[in-house]
């Protein structure tokens, strides 16, 4: 601790000299480092391992060339998002950031391995537990290794963004509400202080802005379409962010069953364990797409699709065909996949049909959904936004790689080459409908079809033919 003071004395009334009181500079103690020590770091392709001194501090993993790292420049640094066992290297980890940057590291002894394993686990405080929760066994899943140790989620929708973008989104929403009479979707219990959140209360500003810009219909508040739309948006919020099923206000927890494309029904606890992505993609044939929900995990799916759609994946009700207690309606999902600056943005649209059985309290007892999962995954795969879990075991993890173990993103090659087809038109949309929005974002490009090579003869058929996917290309410069 340093001291600051005058070296000259002063004289009191008695003539004796006295020393002025010493002033001590206030030096804030640095926050403690979670763990530090020597680890081996794998270089790029055909490169050897090198020893680096690693420091785990406030969720950031930094590599230095010396143990005296204070005031020294770091060689590598990542914000820890996912930590996995390395399938190729003994006592190794693969550390992945939200942007896809990876570090492959390995301990030099079992004692150090155990220390780092414990430190990575503690990043999930205040509940230091394995994030992988037991989930409903699925066919051929008994031998799947659950090797995700840590997943650091976020309360911001989509997965990653900045506070500046969030502030800009809120300001633009307020402008749209004041000048255009727009209505932001309502998610009930979002402001409830007693909710047990997985992380913290989610912020839907960016997603709501995407919804307001891209929605097809202006449903009048109080209408059955508005009610169903808010019900499903609240249900999605509860599935993704509420950790206690008993606090799900949109479902009857004892009676709730979710069924997708006539697959085996899932209870509320099953959906909680699997997450919304894997629950709705479990029926997709793994051999015909680059994503296998049966070999995925809730956190891996969140990372994959959250990163694939950095602006979010908005959802809206198109039309309601029957009223409560048995509500049937068509819907639309859309979003803009990850792309390089200046590149063409390809909007992915997904259409489907859902039937809800509601009780007297308007809680969901049954949910049956039909949509073309294969076409959706195929559209993402063509843009190299998905990657099979097995593929990650057959390549070296490079510290210079910008590719996540769950994503294979090459935005410069992300383009679609389908030809125009009238078959991509959504059958639920009526050009003469008075509810069509007049303020939908203008798109000066052609409509492209997204063919699916799945076998339709054995697939469950929706009586309303609600299985359509459409992609529309626009320029990001406009």
TrEMBL record:
Residues 430-448 have a biased composition (Polar residues). Residues 1-28, 417-463 are annotated as: Disordered. SMART domains: PH (SM00233). InterPro entries: Pathogen-related_defense (IPR053218), PH-like_dom_sf (IPR011993), PH_domain (IPR001849). Residues 32-125 form the PH domain. PANTHER family: PATHOGEN-RELATED PROTEIN (PTHR31723:SF10), PATHOGENESIS-RELATED FAMILY PROTEIN (PTHR31723). This is PH domain-containing protein. It comes from Achlya hypogyna (Oomycete).
